[in-house]
Design a protein that fits this description.
- The strands form 2 sheets. A 7-stranded mixed β-sheet has the order 3-2-1-4-5-9-8, with helices on both faces. A two-stranded antiparallel sheet has the order 6-7.
- It is an alpha/beta fold.
- Helix 1 runs parallel beside helix 4.
- The protein is built from 6 helices and 9 strands.
- It is globular and about 40 Å long.
- The protein has one domain: Rossmann fold (3-Layer(aba) Sandwich).
Length: 200
């Protein structure tokens, strides 16, 4: 139900959401992620939204699979990038050891904690050995519906405690930034780069 409401929001607001995110400067974080991948590696843009990051990674020479749960966001991203974009829910990820990196920018934050844990396990499975995962959450300690969408927020402390309960992944970097969208600088984001670890 929560997921349906969130997807409904993006289907109904795809054009305005894309317009507000597609042109924002994000290269500092994009490049920090890419620097940890081998040149030409394969990336999953997991919840690609407007397609901003898919396009950037592709132009940098990486192979990119782009997916989003909203049909309207997929349509917009296809038009913007000129690339295939698949409609797929987070829980439908079934790849195994396929990706050098997974980019889940401001996307999996829409999952409640129990579903989020399952999706983290799917992402770990989808990564190659030592694969890299970037994701971001709104900074705070709230969870619930806001502005038509569900959000799970984290602080450094709450995320570190949360991720300890998930095997096969460790934190490489954790840092806080302001929102890069116009007039949203007072909003804070928790950014993280995680790495798949050996379970043996």
């Amino acid at each position: 139900m929560l997921q349906n409401e969130t997807l409904k929001y993006y289907d109904q607001n795809a054009e305005s959401f894309a317009a507000g995110t597609v042109g924002v400067p994000f290269t500092d974080i994009q490049d920090r992620f890419l620097a940890l991948l081998a040149p030409g590696g394969k990336i999953l843009d997991f919840g690609c939204g407007s397609g901003r990051d898919t396009k950037y990674f592709h132009e940098k020479g990486f192979a990119v699979d782009a997916v989003d749960g909203s049909e309207e966001m997929c349509r917009y991203a296809r038009e913007y990038t000129g690339m295939p974009v698949r409609k797929m829910l987070f829980a439908e990820l079934s790849a195994a050891e396929e990706y050098d990196g997974i980019w889940a920018c401001s996307s999996i934050l829409h999952l409640p904690p129990d579903e989020l844990t399952d999706v983290f396990k799917k992402m770990i499975r989808a990564l190659k050995t030592d694969g890299i995962l970037y994701t971001s959450f709104k900074y705070g300690d709230r969870a619930g519906m806001r502005n038509g969408r569900y959000f799970t927020d984290f602080t450094e402390e709450s995320f570190e405690k949360y991720i300890r309960g998930i095997e096969g992944i460790c934190i490489r970097m954790l840092w806080v930034t302001g929102d890069v969208r116009p007039n949203r600088g007072n909003e804070r984001w928790l950014n993280m780069i995680l790495q798949k670890t050996d379970l043996r």
